[in-house]
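Limitations
The structure tokens in this dataset are predictions for the assembled complex, not deposited experimental models. Users should treat interface geometry with appropriate caution, especially where small molecules or nucleic acid strands are included. An illustrative entry is reproduced here so readers can see what is and is not provided.
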Amino acid sequence: MASAGLSFGNPLFAAYAAYASLVILKMFFVTGATAYFRYSRGVFANPEDVKRRLKKGAVPRLDHPEVERVRRLHLNDLENIPAFLAVGLLYVLTGPSPGVALWHFRVFTAARCLHTLSYLAAVQPWRALGFGAGLLTTISMAVQVLMAGTL
Amino acid sequence: MASAGLSFGNPLFAAYAAYASLVILKMFFVTGATAYFRYSRGVFANPEDVKRRLKKGAVPRLDHPEVERVRRLHLNDLENIPAFLAVGLLYVLTGPSPGVALWHFRVFTAARCLHTLSYLAAVQPWRALGFGAGLLTTISMAVQVLMAGTL
Amino acid sequence: MASAGLSFGNPLFAAYAAYASLVILKMFFVTGATAYFRYSRGVFANPEDVKRRLKKGAVPRLDHPEVERVRRLHLNDLENIPAFLAVGLLYVLTGPSPGVALWHFRVFTAARCLHTLSYLAAVQPWRALGFGAGLLTTISMAVQVLMAGTL
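Predicted assembly:
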């Protein structure tokens, strides 16, 4: 019984948990990338941040191309990763074929890593491919959860 | 026992799962709307996206009114939908009256659809009404979860 | 058995649920703060909002320092709180030491409250401290979930 529900005794749940935490750590990598660009470029959004840097004449800046790029990447993460986290958990409970489910988790995680790296490197169409693959995987799970549920 | 917890054998969980996936698919509709406006208006945020469109003289643009409208709508989704997804799941486990709980899920889902459509159509006060109803529903669930929990 | 899983009979889950709803209500406090600054300062992002205020000559504005400050704070919440909600739930299921787990939830909640208040008050390094403590707590839980899961 336990092996079909939300417990680490259920191999599919254990896989979901691992990929969920991986993709969250990947998102925090973007948090770190934002911090890296802000500090290395000396670009901060708030007056109190600029003041601490002790640079004469520094002003808050909201339009630095590299920092704004990372922020757009981060926002795209927010548009996709929490949805995956919620839908993936519900999907585990629909009792899917373990092999198929595992590939949903793997493709999503790989797709978001591809998206992150190609956004930072500014290369297309890899970024679009990563974004699209992640989105389609989540939609596939959401449709299966919707069919298993009752409105 | 199973019918009171997180399994599709529990009718209330099955309802939560269905509304959760609906509201996620609605959010992805906004993702699609952003793509539609970007492509149809030729408005992209990154230099590498503009380059691929093969339009001479095209530059990245961050201030197109229609695109920015969809982006604000999307951000409002992010401020409300992940909170609903998390709180709704915990709320199912507090053992609420099924009828009352079902209406929480329905009102939230309908409210976010109203918010989305009225944001796109730029009509008030419907947008504010949809936003407020969704927020109040989530607060109601969060308060009930807080009372069932222990700090 | 029930006391080790996702049910309010499990004291650790009951604690997670309480802190999760607290932190969501805190996030909605920021939603309220945005509304407060928008109304009190008369700063709205959409033409249809300005029209309803019945002020002659009012135009949508996207660069008011106080409103943009609250919006940056809100975005930082979105970058951290949904991740905590997902990882915290999975972390409960890894069977951690209850005392250690409880402090993870408490530190995260206190850290996000500190971050919110010090962002609104524009004081550093308290904001950075709140942000960092919340992030480290979530990373700690994510790593433990990753180790309990299977890729």
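Some entries come with short summary sentences. For this one: The radius of gyration of chain A is 19 Å.
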